[in-house]
């Protein structure tokens, strides 16, 4: 089957970091097999690798629309999570939070995703939405300093400095070199 050849070639090109060639191969695959979600999924991955989150998101949506069970929820969650990282890295916290909300729908009990969602919502000043996600992450990951730090930041934003100080202290205990948690603790205590 010619379409499978283009898919295999695209994957090989992607592994070689030949993103433009991989994009061309996946485009040909999609042209030959427009109802197969794998082509759109692979196109999304290559767009993420080349730093084009909008194109990646568009192809992930097409993959979801045509998915017939050949792409697992975990695979979609993984790529949506990567998409959120790209958006966040570009400073687009709104798009990052939207992607993370979709990941949370696929993996509602993943504390690391909930922690990242809390952080994105915090950056958007959506504190009421951030709080339950930050609390869930901190409870489920009691040894994760960043979960405690994010919860502390949300608590400060909500006006609960006493609880925030406790979370910042926990973050510093867990990771003594966590510079941001140390600074947050100092600020919450009334320092600089």
Structure description:
This protein has 192 residues and is mainly α. It is 78% helix and 0% strand. It is built from eleven helices and no strands. Helix 6 runs antiparallel to helix 7. The radius of gyration is 20 Å and the shape is elongated. It starts with a helix and ends with a helix.
Layout of SSEs?
Elements: H1 2-15, H2 19-32, H3 37-49, H4 53-66, H5 73-89, H6 93-106, H7 111-123, H8 127-140, H9 145-157, H10 161-174, H11 179-188
Largest sheet, in brief, is: none
As residue ranges, the low-confidence spans are: none
Strand content: under 5%
The total count of strands amounts to 0
Tally of helical runs: 11
**Separation, N- and C-terminal Cα atoms:** 66 Å
Regarding quaternary structure, how should these chains be classified? single chain
- Mean pLDDT figure: 92
Spatial extent as radius of gyration: 20 Å
* Shape designation: elongated
Question: In terms of structural class, how would the helical and strand content be classed?
Answer: mainly alpha
Give the ordered list of helices and strands: HHHHHHHHHHH
């Amino acid at each position: 089957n010619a379409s499978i050849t283009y898919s295999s070639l695209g994957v090989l090109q992607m592994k070689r970091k030949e993103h433009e060639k991989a994009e061309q191969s996946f485009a040909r695959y999609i042209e030959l097999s427009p109802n197969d979600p794998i082509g759109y999924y692979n196109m999304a991955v290559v767009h993420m690798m080349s730093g084009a989150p909008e194109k990646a998101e568009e192809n992930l949506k097409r993959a979801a629309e045509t998915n017939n069970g050949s792409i697992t929820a975990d695979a979609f969650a993984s790529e949506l999570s990567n998409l959120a990282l790209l958006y966040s890295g570009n400073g687009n916290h709104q798009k990052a939070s939207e992607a993370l909300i979709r990941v949370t729908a696929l993996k509602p009990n993943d504390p690391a995703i909930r922690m990242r969602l809390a952080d994105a919502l915090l950056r958007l000043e959506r504190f009421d939405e951030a709080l339950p996600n930050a609390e869930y992450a901190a409870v489920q990951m009691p040894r994760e300093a960043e979960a405690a730090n994010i919860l502390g930041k949300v608590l400060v934003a909500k006006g609960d400095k006493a609880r925030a100080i406790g979370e910042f202290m926990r973050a510093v205990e867990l990771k003594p070199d966590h510079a941001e948690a140390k600074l947050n603790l100092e600020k919450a205590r009334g320092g600089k």
